[in-house]
Amino acid sequence: MTQVVITGTGVFTPENVITNEELVDAFNAYADKFNEKNAAAIEAGEMAAVPYSSPEFIKKASGIEQRYVLNKSGILDPDIMHPVLRARDETELSQMAEMAVAAAKAALQKAGKTASDIDAVICAASNHERAYPAIAIEVQEALEISGFAFDMNVACSSATFGIQAARDMIRGGSARSILIVNPEICSAHLEWRDRDCHFIFGDVCTAMILERADLATSEAQYEILDTKCITQFSNNIRNDSGFLRRTRENHMDDRRDMLFRQEGRKVFREVVPMVSALITDHLTANGLSADEVSRLWLHQANKTMNDFIGNKVLGRTPETHEQPNILQDYANTSSAGSIIAFSQHSDDLNSGDLGVICSFGAGYSAGSIIVRRI
Prior knowledge:
- This protein is of the alpha+beta class.
- The chain is 32% helix and 22% strand.
- It starts with a strand and ends with a strand.
């Protein structure tokens, strides 16, 4: 079968940064306003008071220290508590396409490719800002790429599922080279008024170039040895917003179930063993042992989860360079997280070194990509 390699990556990072301290100040101001407004109901036991957050709580719960966002002022306004993004005319690039084009240009440059070398575009992300036309087709148009394009969504595993789809298409002869973009505007589906999750997400976009090895010219190339994706239905991570919302009574109201929500403890207990087994079984199926793996690029959701998975897979506590984390700077960026880690912590590998890109999230879904530095 055709050998497929990753030859370029790119990361678009928004300019705005929100530190834990800034976020907590805004959240606690919101809590004061809410508790004062609803003092009588809280006193009567009819409503729960909103508890304070703290930088220490956030760091201990997640390992996150800051996050990048497209808009900062709306999130930090106690009367708004969500990003404020202007409506764009249909003649302009959409917000997601703009992010994707920026990341894609960086990936193309690193791969030593131009738009004429690309046959397809996949926009793999946890949310898409519209139903159609596809964001991927808009990116294709903006970059003047021929061929075809489509959107896909497997929540936080979208990037790894996109890699599997692209590799399969290249091996099957549908394309020579494919651009995958992962524009994640996670700040827009986060409930910033919920203490248990208000710190989790940030915004970013990643991009990758996958192509036939015989056409690759970049200095850094990573052969995709194998891919494995799994899914298992769970309601423990959920967002009910969708086009049927307006057909149901009261569903256009400000509803908690129309944003990201999760049962964090259940997710931890169920996902950690699932992902650990996925990586271990995937390596075994390819005749590889954990001792042969130089790097784990894991989904950047929670430091404790990654530590547990790394320990389970390697049979010991991973060294920092073996399992690099970027969530302290970026927070959880959904499908883009493992790709940021790969992009920023792969150039130091030597020829022949093995690594695993792994993502996991809502669905449940998880994807494992075994790569080797050429």
